[in-house]
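Quick question: what would this complex look like in 3D?
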Amino acid sequence: MTQAECVECGGDVSLYDDLEVGEIIDCGTCGAELEVIDVSPPVLDRAPELEEDWGE
Amino acid sequence: MKVGLLYSRIRKDEKLLLAELRDRGHEVEKIDVRKERFGLESTTANVEDLDIVVDRCLSTSRSLYASRFLDSYGVPVVNGPETADVCADKAKNSLALAEAGVPTPATEVAFTTDAALEAIEEFGYPCVLKPVVGSWGRLMAKIESRSAAEAILEHKATLGHYEHKVFYVQEFVDKPGRDIRVVAVDGEPVAAMTRTSDHWLTNAAKGGEVTAFEVDETVADLVKTASDAVGGGLLGVDLMEVGGEGSGEYTVHEVNHTVEFKALNSAVETDVPAAVVDWLETKAEAAAGNDDDAVEVTAP
């Protein structure tokens, strides 16, 4: 398990080994939704807001 | 095989699929549609040499266009754009089901608040107002009085995107606190679950409790017919029991074309992503058999 920095609060975010680019993870400190931009090394950014046409 | 995966967000569903594909030694090309451009003859996306592309776009609009463009280049894509087109729109979905003789809730579409109010009054209370495009139970209204109807219609007419001025009014089906989700591949059920909630919306995304459901012959027949009606593919067919739990009588309220299956996978013994990948392998093989014309797609 590796760690990256939350772009919202600066806290450490724990990352699983099977991390995928495009995955959304929650910051355990501030609760922000973060998108995985890169995995090697891990880079996180704020996740896009929910849009009206999202779903299945 | 070499599989493309169209996405803009990797959910647990996509992770399950990716893991299954990679475990079997398939090469995966993840295509983030937010980064690509789609021209009339070619795309920046690396779709050359792909045996099949799976559309897993979270965004309906992106799913519709990306699958349409890939199909136009001759790239095999599941679900196909025709299926996406029908499933993405509740009005088209209802029409397709009705035309195929699948029992589906009575539905009317109106284009003005006055006409919508007439439809609502004719259905009586409660009835349901849904956006024609939408998912996860968002913006669904169970209307219990004329005053509520007037308020909701006014809000939709004032605040909404133009699609909210297409008023999709439906009878309220008094289901037994649960509905049924069947995931199927080209009409063949993979697995099914019930989604139970005290709320009238029982979607798993709304917190409905999921339990495995055994598909009976009636449900299997309805799923096959519903799947064929929308063009087939990897689909989530949603049914409600009419006349109470175990009545054996069903109505199909919708078919979903970018179906989520993580909740189903946790509720049933069937390995859902494995079944999906089995099907993808079959589809890729069939596409290769039909593909004597080599696909050549270059960046625009």
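Answer marked as accepted. Chain A has one domain: 2-46.
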